[in-house]
Amino acid sequence: AINPGNSGGPLMNWRGEVIGINTMILSNVGQSAGIGFAIPINTAKAVLNDLVTLGRVRRPALGVVTIPVSPELAEQMGLAADYGLLIVRVVPGGAADRAGLRGGTEPAYLGNTRIALGGDLIVGIDGQSVTDQQELSHVMNNHRAGDRVHISFYRGKRKIEAEVVLGEARQQV
Fold first, then answer.
1. Are 94 and 61 in contact (CB under 8 A)?
2. What is the pLDDT of residue 105?
3. Across-strand partners of 113?
4. 3-state class of 80 per DSSP?
């Protein structure tokens, strides 16, 4: 049970193995009854070195703004693949920019949202298919700033492989 004041303690399984770090409890009664939250131990291990040496966690960033591509959208746009993440914008000076990936230049609307079409279409990272932002986030969470990843993407109808050195995500204030 997680009680107020004991966040940061270990979360253990029935064998006594540490599987997480307790972070908080959501309770209407101010007791140990409610919903407990914990960070998985593998996540904690992955950020431990940054926390000890820097006092903060460095998150990796590819430096792109993307939209997911459905088979219908791919057909309408004449894309080379019917899945992936279409790069709408590349962050100037970011990891993707340094590796030569391109964002869109043709103004368009997706519903009420203004976007730019014509950018590169990311279809894989490190041999793993990427079809939406959630998969991209999952891949990024397995890496650290400074890691090298291999990106598979289409520029028009031509498939290209590129190595990208991940940048560091800027903290949102």
1. yes
2. 92
3. 110
4. coil
Burial class (CB in 10 A: 0-12, 13-18, 19+), 14: exposed
pLDDT digits (tens, 9 = 90+) for 28-60: 766 666 788 888 888 888 778 878 888 888 889
* 97 in Cβ contact with 149 (< 8 Å): no
* Residue burial 50-85, b: 16+ Cβ < 10 Å; e: rest: eeeeeeebbbbbbbbbbbbbeeeebeeeebebebbb
Which part of the chain is CATH 2.30.42.10? 60-168
Q: How far apart are CA 31 and CA 33, in angstroms?
A: 5
Which residues are CB-neighbours of 137 under 8 A, at least 6 positions away? none
pLDDT in tens, 71-105: 998 998 889 999 999 999 999 999 999 999 999 99
The architecture CATH gives domain 60-168: Roll (2.30)
Q: Cα 46 vs. chain centroid, distance in angstroms? A: 15
pTM, to two decimals: 0.75
Lowest model confidence (mean pLDDT) among 34-48, 110-124, 155-169: 34-48
Cα–Cα separations (whole angstroms), residue 24 to 3, 6, 52, 56, 90: 8, 8, 22, 20, 37
